[in-house]
Design a protein that fits this description.
By secondary structure, this protein is α/β, with parallel strands linked by helices. It is built from 18 helices and 14 strands.
């Protein structure tokens, strides 16, 4: 966003003259006759500078400075003063004003001041953005656990997409965490304070689907006793998560496409058009374009939903995350059920690592809950020989050590007490590449 100058002066001739100087120099400017109007227009992280006269009716420049300082202490404010107000302006600078210019001032003096102030503002905002990015990375790593390259990459993609307004399609197997990823896209973006609404398209009978999605007025059909707000309207301003979107009836796909194109909807039984501002995150197991080619899904809707696509790795493709996830689910289940938790030993870890986990993270969470309840470990290693389980455990140990040390081979050798040749052979056998673990600290 281009930096802007907000100019506050109660004299129309000065406002107009300064506007011409600034626009000729390439600075977008917005004019205010009253300090109160300028204050209402300034938002946190405003990418610009405020230039204000000191002497004005109502709120004066010093009061405006004080209010802006409370909003953002780093916002540059340049004061315009008459000759007799210089001592007052010096006091204001001690209170946080960026600079002051004594009237009458030259265009060059104002432009020089503005250039320095705008550069300072740009650096402040860039620094804030970097800090937020680091904070978001840490917060997301606590929500979406794992050190595997696939999950590290997924977290980065979420942070890249969360601030954007585009619709996102999630591809992943049952239990791989699609709703959690959808919530993260919502929670780490600008819609975080608005509603997140989830709808499983496979769980709704076809005859009720339109009412569930679009809502209805009283008497719209037999049994419609009162007005109902549909999921689309309820998610207005926020995010609508449509799970198993491939199950949506074709008739409703047409209506959803129209809503997405026009950003408006009508409840069943109503002629009133309601404006919508929402983001769609949809999830599917099959490829929607293949479904479209088979005549089971509308191709135009598939393209409308799939502006960006995220692939969620199955648990079997991120085995190094299993111990961390299992410990997390054990702790959660123990706290929820009021039961003591015993960390898994080596034999149990080998079982967990040797299992195929067709139900993915959801199945692992269920296994942790069963363990806390003392119901016995599920047949996690059925169909896997002892040799296979030991191989899986060895691979997990190597992956975890490589992730902890960012791919530094010497540190891994020291931790695992392995000679270089043996470590190289084991990494090659398990398909582990050092470069995949660089810049992936264990606390990510």
């Amino acid at each position: 966003m281009q930096a802007q100058v907000y100019l506050v002066d109660d004299e129309a001739s000065i406002r107009e003259a300064v506007r011409q100087w600034l626009e000729l120099s390439g600075h977008p400017v917005r004019l205010f006759a009253r300090a109160e109007d300028c204050l209402a227009a300034v938002t946190p992280d405003f990418a610009g500078v405020v230039v204000s006269d000191v002497r004005m009716p109502g709120m004066d420049g010093l009061a405006l400075l004080e209010r802006l300082q409370a909003l953002d202490p780093d916002l540059p404010v340049i004061l315009l003063t008459a000759h007799g107000d210089v001592a007052l302006a010096v006091t204001a600078m001690r209170q946080g004003a960026y600079d002051f210019l004594e009237k009458p001032f030259s265009p060059e003096a104002l432009l020089g001041d503005l250039g320095r102030a705008l550069e300072k503002r740009r650096l402040v905002l860039e620094n804030r953005q970097l800090h937020r990015r680091v904070d978001d990375q840490s917060a997301l790593a606590r929500r979406l656990l794992g050190v595997s390259p696939g999950i590290v990459r997924l977290r980065q993609q979420i942070l890249d997409l969360a601030p954007t307004p585009v619709n996102v399609l999630l591809r992943g197997e049952t239990g791989s965490g699609k709703e959690l990823v959808a919530r993260c896209l919502h929670d780490f973006g600008p819609r975080a304070g608005k509603a997140f609404v989830a709808l499983n398209c496979a769980a709704i009978p076809e005859q009720l689907f339109e009412s569930e999605l679009f809502g209805h007025e009283s008497g719209a059909f037999t049994g419609a006793q009162g007005k109902r707000i549909g999921k689309l309207e309820y998610a207005n301003g926020g995010t609508l998560f449509l799970d198993e979107i491939e199950s949506m009836p074709l008739a409703q796909q047409v209506k959803l496409l129209r809503v997405l194109q026009e950003q408006r909807l009508e409840r069943l039984g109503s002629n009133q058009s309601i404006a919508l501002d929402l983001r769609i995150v949809a999830a599917t197991k099959p490829d929607l374009l293949e479904e479209a080619r088979a005549g089971r899904f509308r191709e135009d809707l598939a393209y409308r939903l799939n502006v960006a696509e995220l692939q969620l790795p199955p648990l079997r493709a991120r085995r190094e995350d299993i111990p961390l996830l299992f410990d997390h689910f054990l702790a959660e289940a123990g706290a929820r059920l009021g039961r003591p938790v015993t960390p898994p030993g080596a034999a149990r870890l080998a079982q967990l690592l040797g299992h195929g986990w067709p139900g993915n993270v959801r199945e692992l969470a269920n296994a942790a809950e069963r363990e806390v309840l003392g119901l016995g470990a599920p047949a996690a290693a059925q169909g896997h020989s002892l040799a296979d389980q030991l191989e899986a455990f060895e691979a997990q140990c190597l992956r975890a050590a490589l992730a902890r040390h960012g791919g530094e081979i010497k540190a891994v050798m020291d931790e695992l007490q392995l000679p270089r040749r043996t470590l190289n052979e084991k990494m090659q056998r398990h398909g582990l590449v050092r470069a995949d673990f660089r810049d992936s600290p264990a606390d990510d």
